[in-house]
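S., here's the first fold you wanted:
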Amino acid sequence: MSAVNRETAPQLRTTTRERDVTVDVRDAGVPLIQLNSGASIPQIGFGSLGIQPDRQATRSNIEVASAVVRAALRAGYRHIDTAQMYGTEDGIGEAIARCGISRNDLFITTKLGNGNHSPDAVRPSLEQSLAKLHIDHVDLFLMHWPLPTLYDGDFVSTWQAMIDLRLAGLATSIGVSNFQPAHLNRIIEATGVVPAVNQIEMHPRFANDVARSNSMQHGIAPEAWTPLGKGRYLEDPVLVEIASQLNRSVPQVMLRWHIQRGTIVIPKTVHPDRMAENLAIFDFMLSPEAMSAIASLDAGEAGRIGPHPDTFDWVPSADTPNPSH
């Protein structure tokens, strides 16, 4: 197989200022994806699940998350992904408040918690998230899971409540996460409003092509969580060979595969050198042969790492602060 280096990525220039740290201002070359809402989202963002020891918003965790996110902002990330169930909104809010970067230069995503699906709970939950994040709106608000076995199977009313939040200006764009084709089709048919994004599990061992293709058919941008497969495939011979040919790391090859498929990615790391490495994927291309070789790694459902959206029913509580998967 062959893998050819080419510089083709469009350029996005961002000017930043930082009050508490020195910023290395750089052009990271991150493409923008146009959403069906009219907004644009950087194709690579910074994921925040697991950047602190647990999901609790303790003072020490807030400080940890703030430091990690500020490092990501210094590295050049402008798209930050969080969720009500991650416990990282407070730390990200501190990072936003301290970084000195214009709000207009940031793209902030958060997600509705599984315990907040009742329509009358959706707005208060987002208002609480906005207070934690120190912002007056999010760029993208996602329904984290469809939860078809809870709330009498009614996620349509939850979606309608999110539509109202977009109309109220609390979210520029709204979308979903972990939605299967049947879930997507149901909310679109019921409301006529198409989500801007569907954030789903995707990586070379689980391409999730059915959900991805269905999303794209509706004009929904696919976004990959765990785009690196939680690091389980870093020694895969196919990926190692391609990386060796390009003098790149395996994570860079995996992320580049997503990028060339038109997928938004949100890799997570707490290490500044890896933050920079994950961003350095826009000055080379994978050849068609390399793309096909990576696609051949797909194991279908056997490659799924996370829970299945049809059955996942975890709601955070004192007794179950973390999902069982």
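And the second, which I think is the more interesting of the pair:
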Amino acid sequence: MLAVFVTVAVPRTAFALHRVDRHHRILRHFRGLRGLLWNPMFRPSHDSLLRQNEEIDRLDLPRIQDDAELEALKASGALVRIEESESLKIEPSLDPSRRYCRPWTHDFVQDLSEAYYRQFHAQIQVNSAVRTVKGQKKLRRHNRNAAPAEGDTASSHLAGVTVDLQRRGLSKDQIRFVERYLFYLKALGLVEPEEERHHWCFHVMVSNRYNDWRQTQTIFPRPPVEQPVTAPVIDTATATATAATMTAAN
């Protein structure tokens, strides 16, 4: 009886081990395939975080500590409100008090959203904008992928220069459009973009150089405005006298 039990048990164990090994091979294959499918133009990196913070330091911008500092910057006009429009929508869950950014970042969002709308007749979405150090620390407690709240690689959201734009749900053509748009601006040193995988968004830090560059560009060509045609004013008395003189001469 014992011999029969061993004979039956061993094959079952071997079969179970074979199934586990096969499962692991399939899982490894899937992970490799997933890596191939994720091929963004702007991969997040340590160097990118460093560049974002170097730009913030160059501008001598503070990392906003708490709500009191945030409200002071709003009151002074250093931060401006992002408003929804025909070409732009905002993630409904984004706290209205956090729908702010630096003026040049606001201009960038407006320009990109209008260009995107002209191309696809669809709105682009802002998922995140300004944050505080206090809020970032809280975010880090339940999101291990969030950037630090302090140091050389701190989140650039803390200075109000960065927005996250929705990537999830965009078509391949829409993603490529945004990537090409950002590629050109990055080559000019005007933005530092990343494509975040876990939140499927475009994280874009905007330099204040964007404002100066924008003034030299015809980003949105508009048709010339036709001047209204004004009918000439006729002096009736003069016209009558002129007609009488011409009649007498004839």
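Why I say that: The beta strands are 80-81, 88-90, 100-101, 124-128, 162-166, 191-196, 201-206. The radius of gyration is 31 Å.

Talk tomorrow,
H.
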